[in-house]
Amino acid sequence: MSRHHFGIVDRTTASSSHSLPAGNNRSGAFIALLLLLLNVRARHIVTAYTLSDVGLAATHDVNVSRLVAKGAFTELGEVEAKKKCERMVGARRESIEALLAEMERRWGGADRYFLDVARLTENEVGWIRELLTAEVEGDLSHWSEANDLAS
């Protein structure tokens, strides 16, 4: 028997089958921390995050224009404001890699964040892992290999 995150992912291979919210905002950062807590490999988190660009492509220009029209980053000037807005609505690999590195630097990883900053107990962290994973019988190595998000 092995444990699977959200009933889908084997902890030994720890790939993820859902997309990470785009942007380096609070929800994306929290989901990244949560996936790390569930032992999802950082490279899979990065890949899932960058897949968001595919979903965001259709609305990219509209969202950039909306942000610029609302006055986002006007203090930077028109050209720099537009560049910053473009980064905001994108899901660049460098952004999530920097976020994961900062999480490791600042807190020493997801476990330390949830224990020291969120002030959860070891039992509560264990309960979260238990709740967000499921026991699955059988060999799922074929699934993990076929659905591995990164080479």
UniProtKB/TrEMBL annotation:
GO terms for molecular function: phosphoprotein phosphatase activity. It comes from the Eukaryota. It holds the Pfam family Y_phosphatase3. Residues 1-20 are annotated as: Disordered. This is Tyrosine phosphatase family-domain-containing protein. It comes from Ampelomyces quisqualis. The lineage of its organism: Eukaryota, Fungi, Dikarya, Ascomycota, Pezizomycotina.
